[in-house]
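Let's practice the habit of predicting before peeking. Look at the sequence and jot down your guess about where helices and strands might fall. Then scroll down.
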Amino acid sequence: MDLHKEIHLSRKAKYLWGAAIALTVSIYSTLSLMRDVLLFVYSKIGRSNFSAGVDVFLVAAMVIVFLYFILRKKIHKNLFDLATLIVVFLATGLTMQLMEIPEERAHFLEYGLLGGLIFSAWSENLSGNLLYLASIFLVSFLGGVDEIIQYYLPNRVGEVRDWVLNVAGGMIGVAVAWVLNRPHLGFDHLEPNASCHPEQSEGSQKD
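Done guessing? Here is the structure:
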């Protein structure tokens, strides 16, 4: 076994892991400040206006992502991918409706982005069930650390419910990233290293 080959990270994977690490550090480092920042924003524009702004941002983001998949990825040609994306968007909207506190929605979106980055980074080296399990486990672990940190902060509260919402956001991000990376992964991604060495798969079929 070539250990160097096993642990080698492509340039794309390095960028993705760098973005995931930077986002995680940003989330953790602003936990003690975020409540004060939000209270300041509430005093200026009102809590209801801020909540409406978050909702507008979410809808705009989903529209942009949907148009990207339609125009660039031609997702409308694959009904399975299109249906998956619609279900993900509906699940996102329903989950957001359960969050009465605006900052919970912002946190949900942060972990959605984090889940997408982690899945995309793992997909460069992992495949099959391990890819999904590793992505969901890591984003769940990071969401749990987030709540532990909040538990010990005087102006924040760490709760199991918030952790579940973090995980839900991460899983939705994983689902979107799966649709985005599926042309690269293909249906053969369930077979270890099939996507990384397509010529070997073809050769084995010929034999």
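How did you do? The first helix runs from residue 3 to 7.
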